[in-house]
Design brief:
The complex is a heterodimer of chains A (682) and B (58).
Chain A lengths: L1 H25 L8 H27 L8 H4 L11 H12 L3 H9 L4 H28 L6 H8 L2 H30 L3 H24 L4 H24 L1 H7 L3 H17 L6 H26 L23 H8 L7 H7 L12 H25 L3 H8 L2 H4 L3 H10 L6 H10 L12 H15 L6 H36 L11 H24 L5 H29 L7 H23 L7 H10 L7 H38 L15 H7 L1
Helix pairs in contact in A: 1-2, 2-6, 2-16, 4-16, 5-16, 6-15, 6-16, 6-24, 6-25, 7-8, 7-24, 8-12, 8-22, 8-23, 8-24, 8-27, 9-10, 9-11, 9-13, 9-22, 10-13, 10-22, 12-22, 12-23, 13-21, 13-22, 14-24, 14-25, 15-24, 16-21, 21-22, 22-23, 24-25, 24-27, 25-27, 26-27
Chain B lengths: L1 H17 L2 H11 L5 H16 L6
The chains are: A mainly alpha (682), B mainly alpha (58).
Chain lengths: 682, 58
C-alpha cells in the first residue's frame, strides 16, 4: 500500500512537472503566469533529488553511513566540527548564493524567458547540483582537501598549477564584473549611492559593537545593522530630494569606480573583525531575508510574464549583450545552473563540517537546487517588466541611440513598444531621474523585484522604497563579494609569492599585505576601468568573459571528479560528470572562440579592434581601446589553454587507468568506522 | 504547534551556525572562557585567517 502511495505521489509530481514544462516551452503568443515556471522548477528539483541524486549516492559515490567523516576524525573545534545537517545546509547555501543567480538570468532574458528557464532547471539538475555534490563528496573522502589539491593529487602536478591559475584568474574577472554591476546601478543615483555609502559606517559600527559592546551577539548586531540600513534607505530619499545633498552623491561612473577600488583596497588591509566579518554577517542577513520575501511575494501575487518565450535576439543581435543563444545564453546564466566557483566552497569549509557521509547529498545537491530556484525568481522578476522597458533599461547608449528619444524609437521599431512617458513615469515611481541605459542587470532586477514587492505590500506609493531596497540588497551582496574576493586573492597570491621570497608569504607582514592587495585590486580595477570607458564594451564584453571563466572552472572541477570516478573503478558511471564536462567544454570553447575571432565586431574582440583601427577620423583613446580588446582576447585564449591542459591531462589518466596501464590509486583517506553508528545502535 | 515550534527552533539554530554564534559558544566550551571582550578578541584572532580565506560565490 505504501509503495503504491509513493508511486502515485511521484507520478503526480512528474505529471505536474511535465505539464508545467510543456506550458512554458510550447505556449506562444499569449503571456503565461509565472507560477508555471515555479511549478516546473519545483517538480524537476524534486524528481532530480529523489531519483538522480539517490542514484549518484548509491551507485556512483557509494556514500557510507558507517564511515567517519573528517569532521569526526579530525575534530578540533575550529575548522573540523561535526555539525547538524540543516545548519551545514544553511552555511553552504549562504556561501554559494550571491548576486550571480540574480544578474545572469536578468541579462539572458533578452532571449525571452524560455532559454534561461530551461537552462537553469536542466543545467542545475544534471550539471550544477552534480558538480557541487560530487566535489563535496570527494573532498569529504579526502580530509576536506581543496579543488587545487585534489587536481594535483588525482590528475597531475601540472593540473594543480593550472587549477590554481584558473582560480586566481576567475576571481580577478569576477571582481571586475561585479564591481561594474554596482557602478552601473549607482551611477547618477544619489539615493542608491548614499544608501550603499552608509553601509560602510554601519558595518564598522557593527564590528565595534561585536568586539567591545556585546561580544559574540552576531544576530543581534545584524538586526541592528539591518534596521540602520533601512534608515539609510529612507535617508537616501531625503538626499535625493535635497539639491545640495543630491549634488554631493550624484557621481559619475569613473568617480564610483575610483571609490570602489579604494574601498576594496582598504577592506583588504584592515583587520577582518572591523569590516569584512560584520559586512559579511549583514549581507547574509539581508540576503536570506530578501530571498525568502521574494519567493513569498511571487507565490502571493503570481505575476504574469510580459516577456515572450523567445525574442528575435536569439539570432545574436541582442542589445543587452551580443552573441547567439548558443553558446552565450549558457555562459551568461552561470550560478543558477552551474558555477565553477561553487566547487571552491564545496571543497572549502563545508566538507569539514559534514557529520555523516550520506548528508553530503542534501547539502551538496540540495543547496544548489535552492540556488537554482533563486535564479528562477530572477527570471520572473525580469520578465514581469514590459519588454520595451526591459530593453530601454538594459541596453547601452551606444547600441540603441545616444538619447532617450532615439532609444525608444529603436526599441519600439524592434516590436517592443515603449514611450518616453512610460519610462519617465517609471523613473519617477522609483525616485530616479532616468532609467535609460542602466546596464548591468541590477537595475532591471531591482525594478522587477520592486514591482513584485509593491504589488504584494504597499502599492505604488512605496515602489521607490522597494526599488532602492533592491538596489541596496544587490550592492550589499556585491561589496561583500569584493571584500572577500580581494582578500582571498591576496592570500592566494601571498601563498604563491612566498615560494619565491618567504617574507612575501607572511600574511601578517604589512608590506606584503599592501603590495599584494594593490596587485589584486590593480588587476580587477583595470578591467573595471576598461568596462566603464569603452562605450561598446562594459558589461557587453566583461560578463561573457566572466561567464567563460566561471564555466571553465566548472570544467576543471568536472575533470577532477571524472578522474576520481574512473580511479574508483566506476568508469561505467563516468558519464555523470563526463556529459556535463563535454557540454561545458563545447559551450566555453565555442564562446571563447567567438569572443576572440568572430567577424562581428560586437562579438569578436579582434574584429572590434580592427573596426576601431579602420575608423576615420580615429576615435578618442584609440590605442587604449585597441589594447583592451587585444588584452581581453589574449586573456580568453589563455584561459582556454589552461583548461585544455587539464582536459588532456585528465583524459590521459582515464585512458591509462581504463586500459590497465596504470594502477587506479586514489588519495582517499583510509576507512575509519564512525562512532555515531555505534551510538545509534546503542 | 509542536512541529512549528520545532521548525523555528531548527531555523534559529541554523541561523546561529551561519552567523558564527555557535562557533563562539564552542570556543568558550573548548577554552573554558566566559563571554567577554577578551575571549571574543581571541576567538576572532583564531578564526581570522579562516574567515579571510573563505570565498563568497558570485
Amino acid at each position: 500500500m505504501r509503495e503504491l502511495r509513493k508511486i502515485l505521489i511521484w507520478g503526480a509530481v512528474a505529471i505536474a512537472g511535465a505539464l508545467a514544462m510543456g506550458t512554458i516551452a510550447l505556449r506562444r503568443g499569449e503571456p503565461i503566469n509565472a507560477m508555471w515556471l515555479v511549478v516546473a522548477a519545483l517538480c524537476s528539483y524534486s524528481l532530480g533529488y529523489r531519483f538522480y541524486s539517490k542514484f549518484l549516492t548509491a551507485k556512483v559515490l557509494a556514500l557510507d553511513s558507517q564511515r567517519a567523516t573528517p569532521a569526526e576524525r579530525l575534530e578540533n573545534g575550529r575548522d573540523f566540527i561535526p555539525t547538524n545537517k540543516w545548519y551545514v545546509f544553511g552555511h553552504h547555501f549562504a556561501a554559494i548564493a550571491g548576486p550571480g543567480p540574480l544578474v545572469g538570468p536578468v541579462l539572458a532574458a533578452q532571449f525571452g524567458y524560455l532559454p534561461g528557464t530551461l537552462w537553469i532547471i536542466v543545467g542545475a539538475v544534471f550539471c550544477g547540483c552534480v558538480q557541487d555534490f560530487v566535489i563535496l563528496a570527494f573532498s569529504v573522502r579526502r580530509d576536506g582537501k581543496s579543488l587545487g589539491q585534489m587536481a594535483r593529487d588525482e590528475i597531475s602536478k601540472v593540473a594543480g598549477v593550472v587549477a590554481f591559475t584558473a582560480v586566481l584568474s576567475i576571481i580577478v574577472v569576477l571582481l571586475a564584473v561585479v564591481a561594474l554591476v554596482v557602478v552601473n546601478a549607482l551611477k547618477s543615483s544619489p539615493w542608491g549611492t548614499f544608501t550603499i555609502g552608509m553601509t560602510i559606517p554601519i558595518a564598522l559600527l557593527m564590528g565595534v559593537y561585536l568586539r567591545y559592546l556585546r561580544p559574540g551577539r552576531v544576530m543581534e548586531a545584524s538586526v541592528i545593522g539591518f534596521l540602520l540600513v533601512m534608515l539609510a534607505i529612507f535617508g537616501g530619499q531625503w538626499v535625493s530630494h535635497s539639491h545640495t545633498a543630491a549634488a554631493i552623491f550624484t557621481l559619475s561612473g569613473s568617480a564610483l569606480a575610483v571609490l570602489i577600488i579604494l574601498y576594496s583596497f582598504a577592506a583588504s588591509t584592515v583587520p577582518v573583525w572591523l569590516l569584512l566579518a560584520p559586512r559579511d554577517y549583514l549581507s547574509t542577513f539581508v540576503k536570506l531575508g530578501t530571498i525568502a520575501m521574494l519567493t513569498i511575494g511571487i507565490v502571493l501575487i503570481r505575476p504574469t510574464l510580459q516577456m515572450p518565450a523567445l525574442t528575435r535576439f536569439i539570432d545574436g543581435t541582442g542589445p543587452v549583450f551580443a552573441g547567439n543563444m548558443f553558446p552565450f545564453a549558457f555562459i551568461t546564466v552561470a550560478c543558477g545552473a552551474i558555477s565553477g566557483f561553487h566547487a571552491l566552497i564545496s571543497s572549502g569549509t563545508t566538507p569539514k563540517m559534514i557529520a555523516r557521509e550520506p548528508q553530503v547529498r542534501m547539502v551538496g545537491y540540495g543547496a544548489m537546487m535552492a540556488e537554482s530556484l533563486v535564479g528562477i525568481m530572477a527570471v520572473i522578476a525580469a520578465c514581469t517588466l514590459q519588454p520595451g522597458a526591459y530593453f530601454a533599461v538594459n541596453s547601452g547608449a551606444g547600441l540603441v541611440g545616444q538619447t532617450p528619444a532615439a532609444a525608444v524609437a529603436t526599441i519600439s521599431g524592434w516590436g517592443f513598444p515603449v514611450t518616453l512617458d512610460q519610462m519617465n513615469t517609471m523613473a519617477k515611481d522609483v525616485g530616479e531621474d532616468t532609467l535609460f541605459f542602466r546596464t548591468g542587470g541590477a537595475p532591471a532586477f531591482a525594478l522587477g523585484m520592486a514591482k513584485i514587492f509593491s504589488d504584494s505590500l504597499g502599492g505604488k506609493a512605496v515602489m521607490a522604497l522597494w526599488y532602492h531596497f533592491a538596489i541596496m540588497f544587490e550592492a550589499l551582496f556585491i561589496l561583500t563579494v569584493l571584500d572577500a574576493g580581494t582578500r582571498v586573492a591576496r592570500f592566494m597570491l601571498q601563498d604563491a609569492l612566498g615560494h619565491i621570497w618567504a617574507p612575501l608569504g607572511r600574511t601578517s607582514w604589512y608590506p606584503s599585505i599592501v603590495a599584494t592587495s594593490a596587485l589584486v585590486v590593480g588587476a580587477w580595477g583595470y578591467f573595471l576601468w576598461q568596462g566603464i570607458h569603452d562605450p561598446l564594451g562594459g558589461i557587453n564584453s566583461l560578463w561573457p568573459l566572466f561567464g567563460i571563466c566561471n564555466q571553465l572552472l566548472a570544467a576543471v572541477a568536472l575533470c577532477v571528479a571524472t578522474t576520481i570516478i574512473v580511479k574508483m573503478g566506476k568508469a561505467r558511471y563516468m558519464w555523470v560528470t563526463l556529459a556535463p564536462l563535454c557540454w561545458l567544454v563545447a559551450v566555453t570553447f565555442t564562446a571563447s572562440w567567438q569572443k576572440i575571432f568572430h567577424s562581428n565586431p560586437l562579438i569578436g574582440l579582434l574584429a572590434h579592434a580592427n573596426q576601431l583601427l579602420a575608423l576615420n577620423p580615429a576615435p578618442a583613446g584609440l590605442a587604449r581601446r585597441v589594447f583592451n580588446d587585444r588584452l581581453d582576447a589574449v586573456f580568453a585564449g589563455f584561459l582556454v589553454l589552461l583548461v585544455t591542459v587539464i582536459v588532456v591531462e585528465s583524459a590521459l589518466q582515464w585512458m591509462r587507468v581504463i586500459s590497465g596501464s596504470k594502477a587506479a590509486i586514489t588519495s582517499e583517506a583510509p576507512f575509519v568506522s564512525t562512532r555515531y553508528a555505534a551510538e545509534e545502535a546503542a | 504547534m509542536k512541529p512549528i515550534h520545532e521548525f523555528l527552533g531548527h531555523l534559529l539554530a541554523a541561523l546561529r551556525e551561519i552567523f558564527d554564534e555557535n562557533a563562539y559558544q564552542r570556543f568558550l566550551l573548548r577554552t573554558g572562557a566566559a563571554v567577554s571582550v577578551e575571549s571574543y578578541r581571541t576567538f576572532m584572532q583564531e578564526r581570522e585567517v579562516g574567515m579571510a580565506k573563505r570565498p563568497r560565490c558570485c
